[in-house]
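hey m, so remember when u said the tokens were messed up on ur end? i reran from scratch. heres the input so u can diff it against urs
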Amino acid sequence: MSGNKKGIKAFLAKKDIVFSAKRYGIDALGAMAQGLFASLLIGTILKTLGQQAGIEVLVEIGNFAQSATGPAMAVAIGYALKCPPLVLFSLVAVGSAANSLGGAGGPLSVLVITIFAAEFGKLVSKETKIDIIVTPSVTICIGILLSMWWAPSIGAAASAVGNAIKWATELQPFFMGIAVSVIVGMTLTLPISSAAICAALSLTGLAGGAAVAGCCAQMVGFAVMSFKENKWGGLLAQGIGTSMLQVANIVKNPLIWIPPTLAAAITGPIATCVFKMQMNGDAVAAGMGTCGFVGQIGVYTGWLNDIAAGTKVGITSMDWIGMVLICFVLPAVLTPIIAYPMRKKGLIKENDLKLDL
């Protein structure tokens, strides 16, 4: 019996199949977000630019990029799972089916189903003399059959959770503004993908606005708070890159995470209660913060969507003031203020926020 277990372990190791939370919950999820960014998000940005500038070719390019969302996510996940070429290329069909059949919860369907299809594909890869037929057939058949069986339910479940969060935020904008802002913001800084989570849950509306606020608080907050140590390079790397750069420093001194997180707890309810900022663009943008200004582009795209739908008359000066304050000014002001007494008491020491740039 022990010999069989050893044989199975050796076979799985040879196939590079690793059952772990890191492989599926961090590597695959993070890769999925990159796939989303390289298709849906970039497509949305280009399409919006084309619509505003009257450049029809940009609109067409954006439409084509958006249409490749499912395959892009699946291939990105397969790449993170270290799939051999025939498995990786076969995931294009799997991603298309899972995303289409998953509806609003398509990204979560793609994540779950692609993992299964990829691992089964890896199991049979190069095990027969007709690998070029067997491997794609197994990968595609398992992936599409699971999409037909699971994707509608996974999509419905993801939508239900997302709708519950959105409903609760509408009902209790103050407390949910705090909760969503803090949780999504902290997720952005952790080595997991807040963008993928927001996309999977279709987090839009007021809840999406709170998510944007939390992500901006982390990114801008860390960027400004650590300016003394990291100068302009650190400001740009964290402010329009990612606050995830601070994870190693957070492990060394978790207290450095308090100022941007408290800032998120303040800006979240300001977004939901004072400015009623909504994120009605693509849900993935809610988890991007100021990364490439995607969060702000998402909010702006949402305004345009609302105007087109007739639920918003036009973009007001208060809309712009609210977005600038919540996304940039308040995090940049609040975080150093909260950090100041902590520095004075030695809770945050010199170079605690230093990055190796």
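this time it looks ok to me. The chain has 15 helices and no strands. if urs says something different then somethings off w ur setup not the seq
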